[in-house]
Amino acid sequence: MLQFPKIIQGGMGVGVSNWRLANTVSRLGQLGVVSGTALDSLFVRRLADGDKGGYMRRGLDAFPFPDMARRIWQEYFVSGGKPAGTSYVNLPMHQRLEPRKLIELCMVSNFVEVFLAREGHLNKVGVNFLEKVQLPHLASIYGAMLAGVGYVLMGAGIPLHIPGVLDAYAAQRPAEYKLAVAGASVETDTMMRFDPADYVEGPLPKLERPQFLAIVSSNTLATTMLRRASGKVNGLVIESPTAGGHNAPPRGKMQLSASGEPIYGERDRVNIEELRALGVPFWLAGGYGSPDKVREALDQGAAGVQVGTAFAFSEESGLRPDLKNRLIEQAAAGAGDVFTDPLASPTGFPFKVAQLNDTSSDESVYQSRKRVCDLGYLREPYQTPGGSIGYRCASEPVANFVAKGGKVEETVGRKCLCNALLANVGHAQLRPDGSAEPALVTVGDDLNTIVQYLEPGSTSYSAVHVVEMLLSKVAVEQHAFAATA
Question: Which of 129, 156, 242, 311 could pair covalently with 445 via S-S, beta carbons 3.0-4.6 A apart?
């Protein structure tokens, strides 16, 4: 019988949930999760910085298609790191018909991250993707499966097609994925396709199908996933509006509080009894980062909880040390401030932002940044007047967005999350004027509660301590049961 983890470590941002954090959590018998978002760019920037510690090379050496790994190493590795003050080389932006180079990078980067997260233990590891970032899905998932990923988790949309993709790869078949294209006519081909046979070096490897967990925000979406998905949904993560990152918009007409945040009401609450009746394991997320909340979730019939914020500030996470230290200091003083910004994300989803000077949460920093879209993970595909598929982003230069059929009012307050999230983990792009892309940190509403993990006199804590503390009230009861059995 499959044993499900009680703790899922959230798949946070770009590189925050890195292989080191996931490895630590999974070694403890819980589910460590790597973030699959923009891993191709993150991987290339790690190589450009000289692959400190040689970890990327170790993953490449384990990749089952050595010629592909060699090509990538030779093109992107910079011995000793790129010269100070120089920019990273940007990859071509993703599109429906991808260049082979990008497909290979998605495969390899996801393989390496999962391989390193699994190294040295036999427990399951997960990978988290955003449904909104559709273009890299097919190659990224195949790369993660080549590394033996045990769970695929996906939210920020309704990932109906992903279970079928997992089924296809496990059956050694090509996979298809329907791209969401704004304004597409019925004649427009919006299907993305990936055939592993086009990339393998030798026979097709046999792959195990990972468990698929859909991250949803309501009973309606939970039911939709179970009824309409292209394959089996093995479980659900129920994320409340207090969770970090992208939040589902409130149901009904958007209303804002006096401070400008979306107002969530009774319609946005999840009915736990109805969840139990669906008959699949579920985990509760958003404000469950404490021993009491873990115990409460288990008592309600949940398999466990997903926790992000507490792990984001652990020593093992990829968040830049200076950002981590400043926010821990704020939390220790009870002064951490998180704003649910209805405009920041170009996707239109509310996005939680930690208020921190010298980041794009500071209006002066945001206004001083010159708009540029050169990573493009959150671009929206749309059908052009000529019938082809174009790509636009509400955070790109306003004139460009409007020229592509976008409305100027949709650009107000939009921030470049792609560049900001890479800056969060120490890989900020340098611009020709010498400026570096500013960070923008996303965390949950429970930021100030991370002080519970700090030992007296300490300014940091480990992911090991987070897991042990989260399970402390569960472990005590289990021990007592064992003693009387």
Answer: 242
Which of 244, 359, 378 is closest to 312 using CA atoms? Answer: 244
**Contact 248/224 with Cβ under 8 angstroms?**
no
Cα 112 from Cα 107, distance rounded (Å): 9
Range of the domain at 466: 7-320+460-484
Question: Which residues have CB under 8 Å from 230's CB, separation 6+?
Answer: 160, 161, 162, 163, 164, 165, 167
Percent share of the chain, pLDDT over 90:
85
CA 143, 102, 182, 406 dihedral sign is positive
Q: How are beta strands 125-130 and 32-35 bridged, if at all? A: parallel
Write down the pTM of the prediction. Answer: 0.95
Q: In this structure, is the dihedral angle defined by the CA atoms of residues 35, 38, 43 and 49, taken in order, positive or negative?
A: negative
Query: Does residue 344 lie in a domain region?
Result: no
Residue 382 lies in a domain: no
CA atoms of 50 and 63, how far apart (whole Å)? 19
CB 147 within 8 A of CB 107: no
Q: 196: domain CATH number?
A: 3.20.20
The Cα-based distances of 311 to 5, 222, 322 in angstroms read: 16, 26, 16
Alpha-carbon distance of 366 to 248, in angstroms, equals 24
In this predicted model, what pLDDT tens digit does every residue of 270-329 receive, in sequence order?
899 999 999 999 999 988 999 999 999 999 999 999 999 999 999 999 999 999 999 999
Looking at the predicted structure, is the pLDDT value of residue 484 above 60? no
Q: Is 466 a member of any domain?
A: yes
**pLDDT score for 12:** 86
Based on the number of CB atoms within 10 Å of its own CB, is 332 exposed (0-12), middle (13-18) or buried (19 or more)?
A: middle
* Alpha carbons 163 and 156: distance in angstroms, whole number: 16
Nearest-angstrom CA–CA distance, 94 and 169: 22
Closest CA to 314 of 306, 324, 327, 329: 324
Mean pLDDT of the chain: 93
